[in-house]
Amino acid sequence: MYYSAGNYEAFATPEKPEGIDDKYAYIVGSGLAGLSAACYLIRDAQMPGDHITVFESLPVAGGSCDGIYDATRGYIMRGGREMDNHFEVMWDLFRSIPSIQNPGETIFSEYYKLNKHDPNFSLCRVTEKQGQDAHTDKKYGMNPKATQELLHLFMATDEELADKTIDDVFDDDFYKTNFWVYWQTMFAFEKWHSAIEMKRYMQRYIHHIDGLPDLSALRFTRYNQYDSMIRPMVKYITDAGAKVLYDTNVTNVVCEVTRSRKAARRIEYTQGGEAKSIDLTDNDLVFVTNGSQGDCTAYGDQTHAPVVSIKNGEGPSVELWKRIAAQSPDFGHPEKFFKDIEETSWESWTVDTSNKEVLDAIEAICHRDPLSGKIVTGGIVTARDSSWLLSWTINRQGQFPDQPSDHCLIWVYGLNCWHDNGDFVKKPMAQCTGEELCEEWLYHIGIPQNRIKQLASEACNTTAAMMPYVTSFFEPRRDGDRPKVVPDGSVNLAFVGQYAETPRDTVFTTEYSIRTGMEAVYTLCNVDRGVPEVWGSVFDVRDLLTATVKLADGKKLTEMDLPLKDRLALRELLKKVQGTEVEKLLKACGAL
Fold first, then answer.
1. Catalytic: 111?
2. Of 26, 40, 82, 343, which one is the catalytic site residue?
3. Residues contacting residue 134 through CB under 8 Å, at least 6 positions apart
4. Quick one: pLDDT at residue 23?
5. What average pLDDT does the structure give for the chain?
6. What residue ranges in 195-242 does DSSP mark as E strands?
7. Is 149 marked active-site?
8. Does the pLDDT at position 11 exceed 90?
9. Which residues are bridge partners to 252 per DSSP?
10. How far is residue 402 from each of residues 68, 223, 383, 397, 398, measured CA to CA in Å?
């Protein structure tokens, strides 16, 4: 497997790998990573579809990319996916997957046209005082000390940041900035999360610094992620003959491990309460989703709070990874990621309403008609003074193909789950029913307090999801804690998903899951075509200069607050580049 840049290999059809007709593939997990592996096996490795089996412990595919209507609870969306124009691997795949909603289109072509005609941007990113615009006004509010700390993180090596937290790098000056408000709530970072991962995000998306304050960097699918992405992928692989075994829980992959070689030899699983196994040869390829951010999600409804029944480190996907990891240190260290539920959890809830009073309050904040079918909030709106650190978003309605046309679905989430009382509901988020969660959100969008309880109980239906491991992949780590996609010496075993290691890319993204699936297939099947490298904006001086200016809230180099020695050096430098291409570049990037 090798990486490629540019478009020379982007549309090439690889030659059929030697011996592929004699190989069989077993994929553990039908999330984006597992389904992507199946798609790449069919499209690029050209494996016969009926040689592919996908094991899924749930009754439905998609893993954490869900979106369902539960007749007993209502609409449930645990999360949403924000996409980027430089998700190179994702678009490489989705240009080949037919759309279900728009016959004749691919997932990519329908997505491209949608976001071209209805581009995303926010008209109100942060509120305070019960729905009033906080007027962050696209400003970052960075002072010299905070800027210096951010630069240090950006330049630090992974070795320097090993096992360090964000809080080890920054102090209160940084946490008071608008940058941290934008950053923390958009990506769900906490102070105790991995400094390495925050650095990766900074480097990966440096080209989008100017689009962070108003979320214009983002793109969204037309419907919820299950309908827009998962269903077409499942249809693609099953039409080719692949089998998806639902309600089937893989409990172990037994491996033969020597100093120079690793091979999967048996898959152990339960189906319908019966223990089963499959013996494997070197020609049987195994792709394991090791860990799941959605593992053991607890659900609530209008009148019941979600109840997390597991303890730290428990859960089917966690326990599977532990059994595999016990066989070799090259298979990673799951204990680093699942040690403390209070560090790795947050709660989301979906509010379903057609009430005009609520819809008018929404429109007063986002300045768009919630039922227009077009972009509404343009990404999350954060209530900055919320004790739960509450954020909410409304994507294009309806979010489900069969959603009533006069209904609006609002997705809300809060980062402070366990110990902080709400500002209206005087108890912690984790103890709240759907009605109470809705009440807190209604309070923060400016509904009069004497109307909140009635609207939450009679005009809204709210379903909640408490996810104990949703940000577990952000836990502090070092090299080796996540296994390589294909461990050294492996002949038929690969890891895919958010807990496998691939260079430079960032977890908690659709791109990361799909990239691991592509790399795993290309490596084990010896596909002779390049995997698109991670977009190299971190190496582009234009993006670096533009980001510098944007982080300084538009100040030119000559206007920045620099020490005297640096100001004098800058003055001499600008004299030397006067009249050159360098001066033109600085002006084009807004630095002069």
1. no
2. 82
3. 126, 127, 128, 384
4. 98
5. 97
6. none
7. no
8. no
9. 268
10. 11, 11, 31, 11, 8
